Q: What sequence folds into this?
């Protein structure tokens, strides 16, 4: 009998956990709930009557008349930066500086939004794929496309084809590594939930388990402390790390590129995605994206470690 | 006896029925919530659950290791603090003050900050004779924080022993230390076992905070799984593991409390 009751109680507890989860989802982004419903009806209406569903007046966004774009706080160079070239706090006025800022505003312009009509929302990396309604139209935060991720959210086409790179301290025994095999004995670190972590586990396959941190800042701190031998981050981020955050760090090399790319993240089924994809395609073909890359991302790339 | 047996059965039936109704209502409310299908997919995905079972229990061993080491260190360290704090006389004022400051400080600072400051701060000093292993500093931080709590528990136990007992022991010629060792502490420790185990349950859960320093423990491993699948089911696996670990300790605490109560009642009856 006691067992039976215990079983029932545990079932009830599980149920309670689920209930809390659903409460959360409804409570947090309360503002978006109606918007999502409108989205459905609007798309049906537009497909029947309107020739151009991507015309600005047809787009249904989280906040009417504005485009709400999310990223993490602080947002680091070369993706975002303030007037002084320091990381940008998305709760302060936008500067439009940095690669992702440039892409975001160019996409907004393609959709018909002026710079003033773009709102910024702070969403930590690990909350981007929380289920339920989103309180942003899309997120731009170096999120790599993965098939499993695509089941929870929708990705745009690539706005940046990314490579991973290894950073270590000058003078480290791994600073002169010329191949993946040379990194076998290294204790490597990465931010949790990133494809950088996957690169350690799947590509480098070091003999020591990798260290995993909440944020890249923590991984960088551990590198400075010599608690780890190196960190893996996306290649464009290495510029700011070696120039500003850890001046005595050096890029060992890039990792062999897969098919990895950064996409803008949408709530699953958001019809805005198709319009944004058209915008990205237009920016690719008119050379804007290439120009942004030239402007913001250091192209003096170190060798690829094979 | 017969009567109490029948009413016992009846209470059990009522308890069972009310639990069933409660569970049914809960299940109905949750499964009819508009967001339930997406929550079910995101939190209770069978396939992800099975995949997580392959990796998370192994990482959970790190949590078990952390709290086993920490508990063994906390027990004597906290007792030392409590004893220091209960030393009599003006000579020992500095030690008493130190113990008070210690308990105030480490109960006041959020555990996550202590772990962060020790785990990243001390290795940043660059002193080559100090360890830089994050696991080491994680355990140190937990020992410092939980010893502050446990020392207060011990102190409550020590103060619950009537002063006349110390007086009696001293009048028999026992020194303060011997009186503490043979008269006060045996009674004090027995009385505080339940709240002490309660603190250990808290400690078990806080082992997840050591992941902050880069150590891949169960919560960190589940975050890794969550990020690669964009599905939250691995968190459920970790939660279940923690609960499974906590339940035996919780039941043991209940049992000890009940036994203590029985003994006290028995003693009262005898008087």
A:
């Amino acid at each position: 009998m006691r067992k039976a009751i215990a079983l029932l109680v545990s079932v009830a507890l599980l149920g309670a956990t689920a209930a809390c989860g659903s409460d959360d989802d409804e409570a947090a982004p309360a503002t978006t709930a109606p918007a999502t419903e409108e989205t459905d009806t609007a798309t049906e209406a537009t497909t029947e009557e309107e020739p151009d569903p991507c015309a600005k007046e047809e787009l249904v966004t989280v906040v009417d008349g504005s485009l709400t774009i999310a990223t993490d706080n602080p947002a680091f160079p070369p993706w975002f930066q303030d007037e002084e070239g320091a990381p940008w706090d998305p709760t302060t006025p936008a500067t439009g500086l940095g690669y992702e800022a440039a892409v975001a505003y160019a996409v907004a312009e393609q959709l018909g939004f002026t710079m003033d009509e773009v709102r910024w929302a702070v969403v930590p990396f690990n909350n981007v794929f929380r289920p339920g309604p989103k309180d942003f139209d899309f997120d731009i935060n170096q999120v790599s496309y993965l098939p499993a991720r695509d089941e929870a959210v929708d990705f745009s086409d690539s706005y940046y084809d990314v490579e991973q790179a290894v950073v270590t301290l000058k003078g480290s025994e791994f600073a002169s590594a010329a191949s993946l095999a040379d990194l076998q004995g290294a204790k490597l670190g990465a931010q949790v939930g990133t494809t950088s972590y996957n690169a350690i586990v799947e590509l480098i396959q070091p003999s020591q388990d990798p260290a995993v941190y909440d944020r890249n800042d923590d991984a960088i701190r551990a590198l400075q402390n010599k608690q780890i031998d190196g960190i893996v981050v996306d290649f464009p981020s290495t510029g700011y790390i070696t120039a500003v955050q850890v001046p005595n760090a050096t890029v060992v090399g890039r990792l062999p590129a897969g098919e990895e790319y950064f996409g803008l993240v949408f709530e699953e089924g958001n019809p805005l995605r198709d319009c944004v994809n058209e915008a990205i395609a237009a920016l690719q073909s008119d050379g804007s994206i290439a120009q942004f890359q030239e402007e913001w991302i250091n192209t003096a790339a170190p060798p690829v470690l094979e | 006896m017969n009567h109490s047996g029948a009413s016992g059965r009846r209470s059990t039936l009522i308890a069972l029925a009310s639990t069933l109704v409660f569970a049914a209502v809960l299940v109905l409310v949750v499964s009819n919530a508009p967001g339930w299908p997406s929550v079910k997919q995101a939190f209770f995905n069978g396939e992800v659950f099975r995949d997580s079972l392959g990796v998370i229990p192994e990482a959970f061993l790190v949590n078990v290791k952390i709290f086993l080491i920490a508990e063994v260190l906390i027990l004597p360290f906290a007792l030392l603090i409590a004893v220091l704090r209960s030393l009599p006389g003006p000579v020992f004022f500095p030690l008493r003050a130190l113990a008070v400051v210690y308990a105030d400080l480490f109960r006041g600072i959020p555990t996550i900050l202590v772990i962060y400051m020790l785990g990243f701060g001390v290795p940043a000093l660059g002193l080559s004779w100090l360890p830089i292993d994050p696991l080491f500093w994680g355990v140190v931080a937990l020992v410092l924080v939980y010893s502050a709590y446990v020392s207060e528990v011990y102190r409550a136990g020590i103060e619950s022993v009537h002063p006349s007992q110390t007086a009696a022991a001293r009048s028999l010629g026992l020194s303060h230390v011997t009186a503490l060792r043979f008269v006060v502490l045996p009674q004090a420790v027995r009385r505080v076992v339940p709240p002490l185990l309660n603190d250990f349950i808290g400690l078990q859960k806080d082992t997840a905070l050591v992941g902050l320093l880069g150590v891949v423990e169960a919560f960190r491993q589940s975050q890794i799984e969550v990020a690669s699948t964009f599905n939250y089911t691995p968190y459920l696996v970790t939660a279940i593991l923690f609960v499974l670990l906590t339940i035996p300790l919780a039941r043991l605490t209940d049992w000890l409390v009940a036994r203590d109560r029985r003994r006290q009642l028995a003693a009262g009856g005898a008087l």
